Amino acid sequence: MGGFLGLLIGLILGHQLDKNLIRLAGGFVLSSLAKHQVQVQQIFFEATFGIMGHLAKADGRVSEQEIALARQVMQRMGLNDNAQRMAVDYFGRGKQPDFDLDAMLERLRTTLRGQQNLTRMFIEIQLSAAFADGQLQASEREVMEKICVQLGFPLDAFERLVNMIQAEIHHQQAGRDQGPSLEDAYAILNIDETASDAEVKKAYRRLTSQHHPDKLAAKGLPKEMMKLAEEKTHEIRSAYERIRETRGFK
Description:
The chain contains twelve helices and no strands.
């Protein structure tokens, strides 16, 4: 869960920083790009905790693991009192029966403007939260699939993310210091063990490109979020090296 928490920490730090910049700017007019970045961070923050609360309630009750995860996220972020209240409030709203998931997703979809890498990150966050109790319940899967459809994220790509996150969690729980197992390595790269060497290399290049720090920075993500990209790139590289060493290709 380190990458997941690191991402959220980066998001809120960027969120708080941009609010401070707006106050310091006074009468100066922010560029349209800067305004959009602030808007992305604000709606991302609200949607992250609101939908996280909605997912936690999807199976009928909020489990102790899900509550602990939410608390851990807020503690690790080092939120000030006001930000903590906001996060708790958004999470609480998400648990309510009248939470408007469709409206929240529409706001997020409009704000992200079809940026697939940002959309992918959001879905990874929610999936990690859904797996807080160790498995993805049918009711949670139904909500996640709805999120994907409304954000325009392909369901086949969603299934690959499910497999990837399961492999990452398994690797972390196993506490291996020597990299992922061969089985986890294939799952992290989203390929079968029967894949050709060329297919392994193609999968590695594709995933590395999706999480490349420079490419994400060009989309306006906060500097703190680049740490997640670096962590993911390292994990993908470790999986690739595990397969490469086993097969013996260069």
